[in-house]
Amino acid sequence: MSKRALVAKLIQDVRASYWFLPGSLVCLAAVLAQGTLYLDQHPDLLPFDLPKGLRDTQVDGARSLMSIISQSVFGVAGVMFSMTIVAVSFASGNFGPRLIGNFMRDRGNQWSLGILVATFVYALLITRAIQSPTGADADLSTALFVPYLSILIALGLTFVSVFTVVYFVHHIPETINVSNITAGLGKRLVRDIKALIDAQSDRDPAGASQQPTGDPAMTVTLGQSGYIQTMNKEQLRDLAQDHDLFIDVPLPVGEFVTEDTVVLRIWGPDVPDERKEELTSCFALGHSPTESQNLMFIVDQLVEMIARAMSPGVNDPFTAINCLNWLHSACVVAANHEGGLRPAQDGPVKTKALEFGDLLEASFGVPWKYIHADPLCARHMRVIFAQLPSQLEHPDHLDSFRAFMDRVDPAI
User: Fold this and answer.
1) Which among 57, 122, 206, 306 is placed 20 to 30 Å from 342, CA to CA?
2) DSSP symbols for 283-321
């Protein structure tokens, strides 16, 4: 039974997790420690000679140095982790809990924590390897082992950790700056819209099948509840082509489904039970929607920031205006990039495609009720509506905008 959708979801979860990159660096530090210790035990393998000043280090001095490095670096790592938690708490409380994932996925935070923890692990392993003769063998110099090369690398990692701390102290205020948060969301939204349009352009319109009339021969449910986080369209298309099926996917990625929600409507011959399991395995559910295959989640984050900014307790119209600007930019890209968003069908598989009118409604129709009472935001939205008609190149998108304005014009 294929589990490609589940595997894809797990890969996305791992890449977006806060622990994966630091954990990988810790493993790399352990491997590096074993490698440098081996070279210290076999110095003839080194292509160069270590400086004489470094080789004068005594056992007690080496052990004290490595202990200081490991203790100091781990203490700073604890402070960095606390600063990250404070930043996450501040952002989720002021801008919405949906933004927590953005901080957890931030590569700057992950690299900073990973470098310091990896340096701690490396120094700890090198400290353990330092040996001095004791007891009856105290006069045997062969028992003495000071890993000079490993100590030199530990010192280098310590300097890297110092600069990492400086970077982190600068990076944390940048991550909770509201302008940077909205810009990050807006740029990702524009990027995902372009990627979606490019993917639609790569499809062959001649390969699209006509949806059969009448009731479907079979419907498929997932038997569990949750948000659709991943859908394997390629696998659905392969199954439809191999078994002469037409598959309609009525729900987009990001929708919540119950145990009895229909996620597939199928026309064609009877599908064997093992193929039904493959059809259900094309979906992976989770406890919350994500950005993966669901750019409307980013739109929802920007709208949530508008709602919170315009709440009586915050009353920050300029943050709301900033969010509207990025939504405006996304709508222009959705209309003009490579012909813009349009209905698309992937061979014998029909999915609910994002259309320009849907993006308009989610970007401007939904937040209007939060900003209509504020003169600054309401005036700015009217300016956007006045500019959009001249910025839309395709007649269909212009018609969608006029239909949208007919629905909301009385309110505006």
Assistant:
1) 306
2) EEEESS--STT-THHHHHHHHHHHHHHTSTTT--HHHHH
**Which whole-number Å values give the CA distances from 140 to 44, 133, 254, in the listed order?**
22, 7, 69
Half-sphere exposure of 29 (CA within 13 A, CB side): 24
Task: Choose among 196, 215, 238, 232: nearest CA to 344.
Answer: 196
Strands 226-231 and 256-257: antiparallel
The length of the chain in residues reads 412
Say whether both 241 and 94 belong to one domain. no
**Alpha helix locations (H) across 310-411?**
317-336, 356-360, 368-371, 375-391, 395-408
Instruction: Provide the 8-state DSSP code for 131.
Output: B
pLDDT exceeds 60 at position 243 = yes
For residues 131 and 44, state if they share a domain.
Answer: yes
From residue 392, alpha-carbon distances to 167, 211, 384 in Å are 42, 31, 12
CA dist., res. 330 & res. 272, Å (int): 44
Tens digit of each residue's pLDDT (9 = 90 or more) over 107-164: 888 999 999 999 999 999 999 888 876 644 455 444 678 888 899 899 999 999 999 9
Q: Report which of 91, 308, 326 is spatially closest to residue 185, judged by C-alpha positions.
A: 326
| Full DSSP string of 20-38 | HHHHHHHHHHHHHHHHHHH
Q: How far is residue 28's CA from residue 77's CA, in Å, rounded to a whole number?
A: 18
pLDDT tens digits for range 64-111: 989 999 999 999 988 888 888 888 787 777 777 777 777 778 888 899
226 bridge partner residues = 257
The domain containing residue 332 runs over which residues?
182-203+293-344+352-408
Does residue 62 surpass a pLDDT of 60? Answer: yes
Q: Which of 127-141, 166-180, 375-389 has the weakest average pLDDT?
A: 127-141
